[in-house]
Amino acid sequence: QVQLVESGGGSVQAGGSLRLSCAGSGRTFNLYAMAWFRQAPGKERSFVAAISRSGGNTYYADSVKGRFSISRDSANNATYLKMNSLKPEDTAVYCCAAQRGLVLRPPIDRRVFRYWGQGTQVTVSS
User: Fold this and answer.
1) Pairing assessment for the beta strands 10-13 and 120-125 based on DSSP bridges
2) Is residue 44 within 8 Å of residue 95, measured between CB atoms?
């Protein structure tokens, strides 16, 4: 079992950057595939980015490709989401998710992830 805590959200102007962090508990963090999802008001939770257990494979939603970058530091039980060139439509609560032993295959569905953090708010103003 793993517990996840996100941090790094905030308010920025369009074009700005933020780096989200997801801290995980447990000694087997490297066995978990990790992902970020987001949920805007009135919308369903949607996939943003994912990274494989080894960190060797990454996946992105089309809407964030070229602007966001996911990474992980398994030695420190952490996953990151660097967000550049932020747009007002990126405004949402961002949650990290984890699933042990998962082999990531697009399209990546939120229903395959068992463990979730509480989320961190990102607000982008125009």
Assistant:
1) parallel
2) no
